[in-house]
Each structure stands twice: as C-alpha cells, then as structure tokens.
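Recall the central idea of this unit: under ordinary conditions, the amino acid sequence of a chain determines the structure it adopts. In this exercise we apply that idea directly, starting from the sequence alone.
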Amino acid sequence: MRVFVAMMAITLSACSWFHPKKAPIPDPTQIIVTGAPVNSTVFVDGSQIGTLTTRNDHPQVLDVAAGDHKVEIHVGDSVVYREDIYVAPSEHRIVRVLSGLN
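Accordingly, the structure predicted from this sequence is:
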C-alpha cells in the first residue's frame, strides 16, 4: 500500500513538471492625475492623453509605459502645471496638481 501511495504522489507531482504555470499578468503602469482644474487637459510627453476635465477633483487614470515622463496640465493655450516624473513598471503614480485654478 505504501508503494502505491508513493507512486501516485510521484506521478501527480510529475504532471506539474510538464505543464508550466503561466506568468501572472502584471498590473498596468499608470499615472493618476488629481486636482486638475475644470476645462483643463492632460498632456504626457507633449501629447494630449487625458480628456477635458469637466469637474473638480475628478481623477484621470492614464496608462503609460514605464520610465521618465513630462506631465503638463493645459488650460487653453497656457500650461498651468508641469512635472517631470519617473514611473516604475506596474506602479500607479499619483500627480497632484497644485495650480490654484480650482
């Protein structure tokens, strides 16, 4: 009986050797912009990536590649906030806009 149990344990453990586990999907790398004034837009690295802000304190979650980024908040043709940041892979980096226009 012990031999049978040992053989079953070896057989079942061998199954995991031939079926590798899939790597977990990493969390997305994101910049979360809070505090942008109404009627402002978010630019990342010179490109508009966010939508027009329609109300105060509405965070915008932006998927970006890991690395260095320049975040700008524009109201019309004016830049009211600028920040250079680094976002690590799978990091959720919060940018709090302190422009005084809210």
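The chain has a mean pLDDT of 84.
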